[in-house]
Design a protein that fits this description.
This protein has about 90 residues and is α+β, with helices and mostly antiparallel strands. The chain folds into two domains: about 30 residues, no CATH class; about 55 residues, Ubiquitin-like (UB roll). Helices cover about 20% and strands about 25% of the residues. It has two helices and three strands; from the N terminus they run αββαβ. A three-stranded antiparallel beta sheet has the order 2-1-3, with helices on one face. β1 and β2 form a beta hairpin. About 5% of the residues are buried.
């Protein structure tokens, strides 16, 4: 007996089980990457400010991306914040 995933069934109408009949056809896809805000400052007297974003599935990969993409200055501090973890206080 072979394993038939939902995605295989959706792609091949001949393998489509009755439970999936009538449902819209979807295609297999990867989960979207997590967006991380990159914050940094060049001098201790300056506040952290957003300098850009990176997309990565995990924290370690986001760190690598941020350090390699935003290496144009000698930053004294760089931080990452997962965009989904931001809390809106005042919405415009």
């Amino acid at each position: 007996m072979s394993y038939l995933s939902e995605y295989d069934a959706l792609d091949d109408p001949k393998k489509r089980p009755e439970a999936l009949e009538g449902k819209p056809k979807q295609h297999a896809r990867f989960l979207p990457d997590t967006v991380w805000l990159v914050l940094a400052r060049r001098a201790y007297e300056q506040p952290l400010q957003q300098i850009g974003t990176v997309e990565a599935d995990d924290r370690d990969l986001a760190i690598v991306y941020a350090r390699s993409i935003y290496d144009e200055f000698a930053w004294v501090e760089m931080a990452l914040v997962r965009r989904n973890d931001m809390v809106t206080v005042i919405e415009s």
